[in-house]
Amino acid sequence: MDSNDFNQCPKCGSRKIENVLDRKWKCPDCGFTLYNNVASAVGLVIVNGKGEVLLETRAKDPRKGFLAFPGGFVDPDESAEEACVRECREEIGVEPDSLRYLCSFPNVYCYKDIVYKTCDLFFEATLPEGAELNIQKTEVEEISFYPADTLRKVEELPLAFDSARKTLSYRLSH
């Protein structure tokens, strides 16, 4: 699925609503316009003392069973940094000690036949010494550390999202 289409205008009910360049929906009857704005999401790159990266096995769709960083969508009225702390606390049961912006990449997140275009913001994070990780079973099947110190190892990881692969590759080159 590459785009979202509506059968009728949500304001007046007209069936003439148009998808304009997959950027906005416009109704010629009432003038309603809805922009397909990008959603913000965050991911935390957490590395242990061996240089391995913490990845979660996703417990639900999209991409159930694939690996992902702890993270998720930024809530309204929340900064990317606040979202990192909240998502880390929710998904692995601990707040990070530190955050440092790493990079961002566009992504596509397909959920229940809706295509969400996102800008994924990635942060390197450290956890408190000796922190006990407690996963959120509704979101995460399991967590583990994986070697990601070469491009070959990064390519072999069954990552849920291309933006995560690009982030690990970026990290190796910078």
Number of helices: 3
From the helix content, strand content and strand pairing, which structural class follows?
Answer: alpha+beta
* Helix content range: 10-25%
Largest sheet: 4 strands, mixed
Q: Walk across the major sheet and give the strand order.
A: 7-4-9-8
- State the oligomer: single chain
Q: What is the CA-based Rg, rounded?
A: 19 Å
| H/E element order | EEEEEEEHEEEHH
* Ends distance: 34 Å
Beta-strand percentage range: 35-45%
pLDDT averaged residue by residue? 94
Number of DSSP strand runs: 10
Low-confidence residue ranges? none
Q: What is the 3D form?
A: elongated
In words, what does this structure look like?
With 174 residues, the protein is of the alpha+beta class. The protein is 18% helix and 37% strand. It has three helices and ten strands; from the N terminus they run E-E-E-E-E-E-E-H-E-E-E-H-H. It has a four-stranded mixed β-sheet with strand order 7-4-9-8, with helices on both faces. A three-stranded antiparallel β-sheet has the order 1-2-3, with no helix packed on it. A three-stranded antiparallel β-sheet has the order 6-5-10, with no helix packed on it. Strand 8 (98-111) and strand 9 (114-126) form a beta hairpin. The chain is elongated. The two termini are 34 Å apart.
